[in-house]
Design a protein that fits this description.
alpha/beta
């Protein structure tokens, strides 16, 4: 059975990177069935740029010309959780990709992900590796979920490289707006606790740009992750140990908490 997928791109005054993000989505060898760009109130012309790019994409695809398959939305609530939730609600596709304006899909990512979903109808979340780049554009390497993620020191997946069947959101609910930085961590932990089936593809699916709220408000992120860990863990020991590891080791050493390949290896991928 051929599934459909929709891409959600949240933006707020990110005009400088928005074109790159949307281009990476629209250039996929397996084109998206839906694209929703949701704007949180930009004043830099982000919405107008997105509308131009999506209009060109509609013109290039006669089968969706005149439809609202590729569209922009104005966010009603505030915060990234509300942006994602509102856009997900607007999608009709079987699978949801979250690719924010600062992030991008790797070539061939959509085809690899959708093939994985179609091969196994029981898999609900497909996730892969992510290319990390600094705010100044420097390549930092490729990250894949590793021991730190499994122990709860970091999220088990990277949101831009995590694709979720719509039925998971319908069953478990979407993102908790009470969290400002760790909302993806909470969602993934809820999925894990509910027995949702994950499949990891050991390939690079997306590029993640450092500098978002979860990377600049580190103390808040650590507190939220401790709260989430305590909520979802069967034991209080691991969340507390993870919190101490982040504060005492990872933050002073400026480590992300993921397995980071060398830059040379990243450049070869």
């Amino acid at each position: 059975m051929r599934l459909t997928y929709g891409v959600v791109t949240a933006t707020l005054n990110a005009r400088a990177s928005l074109a790159r993000s949307l281009s990476s989505t629209l250039a996929q060898s397996r084109a998206p069935d839906e694209v929703v760009v949701i704007d949180g109130g930009s004043s830099d012309g982000s919405t107008e740029l997105a509308e131009e790019i999506l209009a060109d994409a509609r013109s290039a695809r006669p089968q969706i010309a005149g439809s609202r398959a590729y569209r922009t939305m104005r966010q009603e609530g505030t915060g990234i959780a509300n942006a994602w939730n509102e856009a997900i609600d607007a999608l009709a596709s079987d699978v949801v990709f979250l690719v924010n304006a600062d992030d991008a899909l790797e070539p061939g990512a959509a085809e690899a992900v959708m093939d994985a979903f179609e091969r196994d109808p029981e898999v609900d979340i497909v996730h892969g590796n992510a290319r990390f780049i600094a705010a100044d554009g420097r390549a930092l390497g490729i990250v894949r979920p590793g021991v730190f993620a499994r122990l709860g020191v970091r999220c088990r997946t990277m949101h831009c490289a995590t694709m979720v069947r719509r039925r998971v959101y319908d069953r478990l609910g979407a993102f908790d707006g009470s969290y400002r930085t760790a909302l993806d961590f909470d969602f993934i932990e809820r999925c894990h606790r509910a027995g949702v089936r994950f499949l990891h593809l050991d390939t690079t699916l997306a590029t993640f740009s450092l500098g978002g709220v979860s990377n600049t408000r580190l103390s808040l992120a650590d507190r939220e992750m401790l709260e989430i860990g305590l909520r979802h863990s069967r034991t209080k020991v691991l969340p507390l140990a993870a919190f101490l590891a982040r504060r005492a080791l990872l933050r002073p050493m400026r480590l992300a908490g993921f397995d980071l390949w060398s830059r040379a290896e990243a450049n070869r991928s």
